[in-house]
Design brief:
single chain; 527 residues; alpha+beta; 14 helices; globular
Length: 527
């Protein structure tokens, strides 16, 4: 199988001592500004050319509102689609997921003793006029690493942050930092104005150093932004204003696009032919997000690996991909998609659809008459359809599933913090580095691990990921961890669905991101 460039290894040389990634002016917006419209089958085609109206308004509709506009306090990675408009990170990425300069213009990794040194961009200010410098970066990283931060687990290898001079910092590490460049391109590397740290309204009136500043936020409904005129990369903020509306209902988003009330929406797979018939531009490409039925290993019968294996044999992944995603999804039993360097091809056929084998395993576990459990899911059309299909499939092997559908902005709180339900059908949005996905979902105490439990084989591989001093060894450990997820049935991974976005032909510069969190650098509307 041909391996697309967007799945290539991202940090093949990143652990070489004194590796320096130098800045290139305007590089961030240049990557995103090339149009990557497609025919819906992933084949790129050029959108209607046009010159961006720098005074125009870009109208976006996205499925989910942010859980918080405080990057360290929010509880969902889907927040990034909103946050990236406001907050720059120390490291940015290309749409393909490669690290490039952001607020750090270059960085150096040392293996012994482990450390990471970063040179910061000069002449940058936050939206409130506060200068961005080494001290601001330090206090942000210290805040992100604090006990009450929801991104602390991503930064666990940082032992201390040292201010070297006005625009240089050094991260003293407990382990080699091969994953850190990409980790710092996520919420852990977002920089907010230190003057806003203690503001009780920081989660609704955020102060970043990004392309746009928030002018109004109606919680859960809509955010209004305007261009930050002093932004260091002026071409990135291609629209004068951005209106970002949150709408969970597929039909409502579709109708808003077709009716001219929106310029860009994420669209259900079954609606792609409709928007194409109306002359809209569609991108439909795989990314790192995974659909899975995540089990709380401390609930129901899920402490028994035989039961977990039975669940994996009982689900018809191919049927889900065809019936619910119109074939725009790839069935999978592991956290990373085919072709991506963290994927282990040898385990691809571990769990085929085999209801009879599922019944045998349940009988072996002493559950000949089956059992019951509560399955949470978000009140999104696609999620409910997948959950109802799972309910029907599991009923065929004697497992009684009670569905608990909760509002989309409450599902993370309900499943992971309140510990309601025995399992949750959810997507996990891709993380820039695979160690983040593995650590969050499957490590002991991982923030997206409902039980906080794991398996010895997984933890052994995960520890090797963190301690590897050679990139080849790190990649091998990542794959070993993926194998442990499958072999120990720590999860019921279902599929990797395409990310489907539809837009008016006047939208210029949009590119989908491998991380499943679209950014809008260099994106605007033609005049």
């Amino acid at each position: 199988m041909h391996t697309p460039s967007r799945w290539r290894p991202l940090l093949a040389l990143v652990l070489i001592a004194s590796l320096v990634l130098a800045a290139c002016g305007g590089e961030n917006s240049g990557e995103a500004a090339e149009d990557t419209g497609s025919s819906g089958d992933g084949t790129a085609e050029a959108a209607v050319p046009g010159e961006i109206d720098r005074e125009g308004t870009l109208r976006l509709i996205y499925t989910v509102a942010p859980t918080s506009y405080d990057p360290h306090r929010g509880s969902s990675s889907t927040d990034n689609t909103s946050l990236n408009l406001v907050f720059d990170r120390l490291v940015h990425t290309t749409p393909d997921g490669d690290p490039i300069p952001g607020l750090a213009t270059e960085w150096t990794l040392e293996a012994e003793p482990p450390s990471m040194s970063l040179t910061l961009r000069e002449d940058v200010t936050f939206h409130d006029g506060t200068p961005f410098d080494a001290e601001a970066a330090k206090v942000n990283l210290d805040r992100a690493r604090a006990e009450d931060s929801n991104v602390a687990s991503d930064l666990v290898t940082i032992e201390s942050v040292e201010v070297v001079d006005t625009h240089d910092i050094k991260l003293n590490l407990t382990e080699p930092g091969g994953a850190l460049p990409l980790i710092l391109s996520d919420r852990g590397g977002m920089m907010m104005s230190p003057a806003s740290f203690d503001d009780p309204n920081a989660d609704r009136q955020p102060v970043g150093a990004g392309m746009y500043r928030v002018t109004d936020y109606e919680v859960g409904v809509q955010t209004s932004f305007e261009r930050y005129e002093d932004y260091w990369d002026p071409e990135a903020a291609a629209a004068a204003k951005v209106e970002l509306t949150y709408q969970a209902d597929d039909s409502t988003r579709l109708n808003a696009l077709l009716g001219g009330q929106a310029d860009w929406v994420n669209v259900a797979a079954g609606d792609i032919s409709t928007v194409e018939d109306e002359g809209m531009v569609v991108t439909s490409e795989p990314d790192l997000a995974l659909y899975h039925m995540q089990l709380n290993l401390a609930r129901s019968e899920f402490d028994d690996p035989l039961v977990r294996e039975a669940l994996n044999f009982a689900v018809d992944r191919e049927g889900l991909a065809e019936a619910i995603f119109d074939g725009r999804a790839t069935p999978s039993v592991q956290p990373f998609p085919e072709g991506y360097f963290a994927n282990e091809p040898d385990v691809a056929d571990t769990y085929t659809y085999d209801p009879e084998r599922a019944r045998e395993l349940l009988a072996e576990a002493g559950l000949e008459d089956g059992f019951s459990f509560e399955l949470l899911t978000a009140q999104l059309d696609g999620f409910v359809r997948v959950s109802e299909a799972l309910q029907a499939q599991l009923a065929e092997v004697g497992i009684d599933v009670t569905l608990n559908v909760v509002p989309v902005n409450e599902v993370v709180q309900t499943a992971y913090l309140d510990k309601v339900g025995d399992a949750v059908m959810i997507t996990f949005q891709g993380r820039p580095d695979p160690s983040q996905t593995l650590g969050r979902l499957y490590s002991e105490g991982g923030p997206s691990n409902p039980s906080g439990e794991s398996s010895p084989a997984f933890m052994e591989a995960y520890d090797l990921i963190l301690s590897a001093t050679d990139e080849d060894a790190r990649v091998e450990a990542i794959r070993e961890a993926s194998v442990a997820v499958v072999d120990d049935a720590l999860d019921v991974v279902l599929l990797h669905a395409n990310a489907n976005y539809a837009m008016r032909s006047e939208v210029v510069g949009f590119a989908p991101y491998i991380t499943a969190k679209p950014e809008f650098r260099g994106v605007g509307v033609a005049g």
